[in-house]
Amino acid sequence: MEVKGKIIVVLPPQSGTSQAGNAWKKQEYVLETFDAYPRKVHFDFFGDRADQYPLALGDVVNLSFDIESREYNGRWYTSIRGWRAEKIDPNAAAAPQQPMPAAPAAAPSYAAPAQPVPDFTQSSKNDDLPF
Q: What is the CATH number of domain 2-88?
């Protein structure tokens, strides 16, 4: 999945050692989307990706992520785990668009209707409608 937005919070890095004795590292961020109703998205990079994608406050990024849920003591917890972040230059010009096709040289002419169109705005004496 992907989301585009601006980094509004950079949390302190976390690290430690697992029960198996392996070192781990995690870097968390909060991104705000550019939707009509902006949403805040908390996500993290885990392991080597924490160093591979260093983001700074104000960076505009296109984040690729996975959503992951796990159970602990009868409660479920969901996290958004980033796996790629592509920085986007907010000042870059939009991609050039294809020019609109030219309008036809002459609009086609249409023949007048074969029969006159009835005028329903005038009431007649033969109306059987109550209004």
A: 2.40.50.140
